[in-house]
Structure formats: C-alpha cells, structure tokens
C-alpha cells in the first residue's frame, strides 16, 4: 500500500509491506507524528498504540529509507543510515526515492496518510 509522508516543505512517497504488521500500521492512518533524531542514524516517533507483531521476524537489518517498528519500545523508526541486525526491529515498509527532506531538521511534525 502506498502512503505519503507530508512534511512542512515536502511530500515523500513510501510503500508499506503487505504483512500483518504493515496492515496494522495502515489502520492507524492518517497519523500526525512528531519525528525526532535518534543517535544520528534514524528518525523516531511514538505510535499511539502497540502494533500486532504476530508472525513478525525476531530481528531485522535496516537500510536507509526503511520504515520500521522497534517492538520493545513500540516506536516507529525511519533509518537514514545503515545499522546492524537488531532484535525486536520489524520492517513496516520503505520510502520510494530520496529521504533527504527528512534530514533537514532534528525534529519536526509529519503526517502519514494513504496515497490517493
């Protein structure tokens, strides 16, 4: 399923995986989140509730542009740098194209919604 991530000065396109957790994430949309930088490698935001991780892999190795859930904390993480395999990290989907607009500020508001 295609989604849009709307920032103050840019709209980014992403695709959410057709998985149980991906569909659960989509059920939250539209969603307004405050994204903030975490350790100079990802943007994170708290979700309004836990997502269904039934049948999700136990770990994942994120790549730049990946949209993930860190299940132990229940927060979403958008990676802009590669990182090692992490237990509890589950892929939700990935951006189509550049995520450069995500890197322009340490924190900002973003609206996640289904693409028309």
């Amino acid at each position: 399923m295609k989604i849009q991530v709307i920032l103050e000065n840019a709209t980014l396109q992403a695709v959410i995986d057709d998985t149980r957790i991906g569909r659960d994430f989509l059920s939250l949309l539209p969603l307004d989140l405050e994204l903030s930088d975490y350790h100079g490698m990802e943007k994170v935001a708290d979700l309004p509730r836990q997502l269904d991780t039934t049948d999700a892999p136990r770990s994942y190795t994120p790549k730049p542009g990946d949209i993930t859930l860190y299940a132990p904390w229940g927060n979403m993480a958008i990676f802009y740098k590669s990182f090692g395999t992490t237990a509890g990290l589950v892929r939700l989907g990935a951006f189509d194209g550049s995520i450069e607009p995500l890197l322009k500020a340490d924190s900002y508001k973003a609206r996640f919604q289904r693409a028309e």
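Helices lie at 20-26. The mean pLDDT is 95.
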